[in-house]
Amino acid sequence: xxxxxxxxxxxxxxxxxxxxxxxxxxxxxxxxxxxxxxxxxxxxxxxxxxxxxxxxxxxxxxxxxxxxxxxxxxxxxxxxxxxxxxxxxxxxxxxxxxxxxxxxxxxxxxxxxxx
Amino acid sequence: xxxxxxxxxxxxxxxxxxxxxxxxxxxxxxxxxxxxxxxxxxxxxxxxxxxxxxxxxxxxxxxxxxxxxxxxxxxxxxxxxxxxxxxxxxxxxxxxxxxxxxxxxxxxxxxxxxxxxxxxxxxxxxxxxxxxxxxxxxxxxxxxxxxxxxxxxxxxxxxxxxxxxxxxxxxxxxxxxxxxxxxxxxxxxxxxxxxxxxxxxxxxxxxxxxxxxxxxxxxxxxxxxxxxxxxxxxxxxxxxxxxxxxxxxxxxxxxxxxxx
Lengths: 115, 260
Hints:
The complex is a heterodimer.
Chain A: H1 2-20, E1 26-33, H2 41-54, E2 62-66, E3 70-74, E4 80-83, E5 99-102, E6 107-114
Parallel strand pairs in A: 1-2
Antiparallel strand pairs in A: 1-6, 3-4, 3-5
Helix pairs in contact in A: 1-2
Chain B: E1 35-42, H1 45-61, E2 64-70, H2 76-87, E3 93-99, H3 104-110, E4 116-120, H4 129-141, E5 150-154, E6 171-177, H5 184-187, H6 189-193, E7 197-201, H7 213-223, E8 228-231, H8 240-255
Parallel strand pairs in B: 2-5, 2-6, 3-4, 3-5, 6-7, 7-8
């Protein structure tokens, strides 16, 4: 459940952003959660719901989550597979098992709507 | 700059994450006074900045840092005890122990006569760069802690969460013990894609468990073809020489300025 500590970091950033923008209410938070960043989307959302319910600034805020795609290159035939889903078991073209992933390994606060 | 000693870490109270607030896209929607701010800041940025500072700090004092990640009970502490015995008088070792509760692991390591401190996370399932920073300062105040060639950071026993947090280590080592089964690389890929070295431990138990080493190693290499792989038993000493050779090379490379 390291998602909880990441949500705590997020809440800290949101408080700072709200203060910088003289906002008293966060309405909507958009996150990008890469499929390979080691964060479980449901756990992150669960943590966000718990923590946001305890903070006046965040109570009722909506959490939007974007899942970016990962680009896997087959080390056998060079075929590229682009997916936001689970890591492919093997190359669909040549059945090679080693696929080289690029992207999708970050957890990014994209946008905040506040008032 | 760190308040404790002036090491490269940002001080605990500093605003160390560099989120780039682009306010140029902010606008007001027609029906309310709400305002949208594009932030585009990684939540890992704060930890990564501290990890980078930790790495610079380790470099300044000439220490190679290893982050040991595994499930609970894979034999991390026993391996450290055997490693300390084998390298005593040759390489100056320091240990940061991470656990949720108790000083037990630190007591075991202290009994071996090397500087050690225990970090108890009080529930957190992983170490992060900030904890490591504080831990290393405490370690440096321990007898012998001012001169360390090889720093072991034994993470909280957990094959999931620690994989996400860079501590500033030079090498990350993931351990899987034979009783755990060979499917760990397939089930917990992040620990293997983010590591430099994969160690199969408790190989003395291979006759009693169904653990095809080539299958486990093959799965791990498919995830991370650069992974160095070793198998050993801390109990019988089988395979220990390969592990010790790896550690000696790391320390030698560090001294020669080849490891950044």
